[in-house]
Amino acid sequence: MTNNAVKEAPRNPKVPQKQPKLRRDMTKGEYILAEMKRTWVGYVMVLPFLIMFIMFTVIPVILSILLSFTNFNMLQFPDFVFMDNYIRLFLDDDLFIKAFQNTMIFAVATGPASYILSFLVAWFINELSPKVRALVTFIFYAPSISGNAYLVWQLFFQGDIYGYVNGWMLKMGIITKPILFFQDTAYIMPLCIVVALWTSLGTSFLAFIAGLQGVDRSLYEAGAIDGVKNRWQELWYITLPSMRNILLFGAVLAITGSFGFGGVVTALCGYPSTDYVAWTLQHHLQEYMTTRFEFGYASAISLVLFFLMIGANVLVQKLLSKVGQ
Amino acid sequence: MKKLRTRKHAVVLNRSVGGDTGITIVLAILGVFMFLPMWFLIVTAFKPLGERNITPPRFYVAKPTLQNFIDLFTNMNATWVPISRYIFNTIVISVLATLGCLILGSLTAYALSKIRFPGTKFIFAVIQYSLMISSTVSGITSFIIFVALGWLNTYTISIVPVWASTLGLYLMKQFIDGNVSDEMIEAARIDGSSELGIYWNIVMPLVKPAWLTLMVTTFQGVWNTGASGYVWDESLKTFNTAISTISGVSTGASTAAIILMMSVPITVFIINQSRIVETMASSGMKD
Fold first, then answer.
1. Is residue A32 within 8 angstroms of chain B, CB to CB?
2. In CATH terms, is domain A84-320 a member of 3.40.50.720?
3. pLDDT digit string, tens, across residues A114-141
4. How is chain B split into domains, by residue range?
5. Is pLDDT at A98 greater than 50 in this prediction?
6. Residues B258 and B41: beta-carbon distance below 8 Å
7. Which of A119, A149, B2, B194 is the most exposed place for a label (fewest CB within 10 A)?
């Protein structure tokens, strides 16, 4: 398959010693077959995982695509309705449009923000001593692994005078009566975004820290000689290009996280939130799946989410390829 | 002439005092934003009832008490199913899920990275793409599959799907690519080791940071999600689920519960922090 594999073939003891046929004497099909025979252990090794993966990821995604063109309620056999679900979604479901808008707002607000925040913090602490860096890493990373610790924000923004923020603001005379933060439509979205950001310095943050540590020091010295004037130029021309792969990995995680947003809203503002102000695709999906049992329609919603994620990934890959130019 | 600054006796290029100060200030502000909620969580868990209701709240606790934790434990004893059962469930689920994930993930990563059978590239590409979609997308239809398999309301549903997690496999494969040389594997093959032997005796010891990372992240995930929503039998639920139900009695008890719950993944992370960061160094994605 690759040049490497060609070179390896004769050296492998598994190949029978009686004059193995050379690559140039074989057709492509024969060669692949021979390679498959030689590396059969590999197939055995990946098989268990692959079965699980196909069962829990590949089949569900394909099934979702198929179901989205049908009406299905788990009881009767799905009947084919072609594009009806999608037409209903975009033309006849105001709540879906709202959910779509909110999901986009959340994704645009939390995705890039958490990504940039993760990177900047990682970059800021890059030159600290290892001990201090480990401590700061821990402080920033802890919220993302602390399960439902974000519920503490409820104490801060509780709607009565015992809520911390209300308490402080009343004391300072900024407000005269407590604000019902998680019920007031003006505050729900911004608050949820803040809480989402608080929990968002996760795996990609650690990846950035590691990536920054791995940048070759001599590149910086060479850059300084070549006329890099300040740390920002150094960041743009040297650091970012040399960790592009990690940036891409971080972006993939950030996108997945920001579009799947919804759980935090439910926990803080209830289900549904006041006037559906923070209703996301995640909620809409949940509603049609668990309450109304319209699986075909719910599949169509999940497909919309699917294409949003793929689209965002393509866009981000394009943007990242411009880094350092 | 370019000015050279030194920091801890090492020459630092291109660093201005203004920039250093600015960065420190921004970092401090962000640090307060991140840490303040955590701080209040800890303080509140130790505040007696009287202190919890002071407005505006105090940043410290004058008379620390364990009453909140005691309340929590008293409530635990009053649960329908004994609390030990929930703990047992959590242990069974986390251990089996983590172990399976580790074995399948590392075995697959090794095969994809070093055996390179025809189809490796395709399989890995699909796995990489699957990182781009969240589980929400496949949620509905996986539910149908669970129903078809008869897994609703069993341990299996909380364990087996975790085995197919792709992030761990991805990190493992990248780490093996970057840290285990082909020559070493070739040499072992010529010496007559079986692939399984090479995987177990050569690769696994070399990628210790990666499998520790895989263990930690899987464990954290399982611990924090608890049992899936498709489990309704009380005796099959996890500690996580139980504690969030019983902690509703008071703010004190619920903060105590949160502290209790988060202390486990945080401790595990602190112990393995350096290894996890080391693993992440090879997480880059080639486009």
1. yes
2. no
3. 999 999 999 988 888 888 999 999 999 9
4. 5-65, 76-238+264-280
5. yes
6. yes
7. B2
Rounded to an integer, the average pLDDT of A300-315 is 90
3 state SS of B5: strand
Nearest Cβ partner of A46 from B112, B217, B287? Answer: B112
Residue ranges covered by each domain of chain A: 3-80, 84-320
Provide the 10 A C-beta neighbour count for residue A252.
24
Q: Residue B138: which of A64, A220, A223 has the nearest Cβ?
A: A64
Distances in whole angstroms, Cα of residue B255 to Cα of each of A166, B245, B261? 20, 13, 10
Q: Residue A1: which pLDDT band, with cuts at 50, 70 and 90?
A: very low
Contacts of B265 in chain A (CB under 8 A): 145-147
Residue B127: which of B174, B178, B169 has the closest Cα?
B169
Both tokens of residue A21? 């046929």
Please check whether residue B270 is in contact with residue A138, taking contact to mean a CB–CB distance below 8 angstroms: yes
**Which DSSP symbol is given to A275?**
G
Per the CB < 8 A criterion, the answer to whether A69 and A299 are in contact is no
User: Cα dihedral angle (B19, B20, B26, B28), rounded to 10 degrees?
Assistant: -170
Do A67 and B140 lie within an 8 Å CB cutoff?
A: yes
pLDDT in tens, B66-122: 888 888 888 777 777 777 888 888 888 989 999 999 999 999 999 999 888 888 899
Cβ proximity of A157 and A165 under 8 Å = yes
For the segment B4-22, what is each residue's pLDDT rounded down to a tens digit? 555 555 555 667 788 888 8
Of the CATH numbers 3.40.50.150, 1.20.1440.20, 1.10.3720.10, 3.30.365.10, which one belongs to the domain with range B76-238+264-280? 1.10.3720.10
Interchain proximity B277–A137, CB inside 8 Å = yes
CA B197 – CA A199 distance, rounded (Å): 41
Q: How far away is chain B from the Cα of A48, in angstroms, using its nearest Cα?
A: 7
- Single-letter amino acid, residue B241: T
Partner residue opposite B244 with nearest CB, options A148, A156, A214: A148
Instruction: Please state the ipTM of this predicted complex.
Output: 0.86
Q: Do B14 and A230 touch (CB under 8 A)?
A: yes
DSSP-based three-state secondary structure for B10: strand
Query: Which parts of chain A are beta strand (E)?
Result: 70-71, 79-80
Token output for A18: 């009686």
Q: B14 and A224 in contact by Cβ < 8 A?
A: yes
Secondary structure of residue B12 in the 3-state scheme: strand
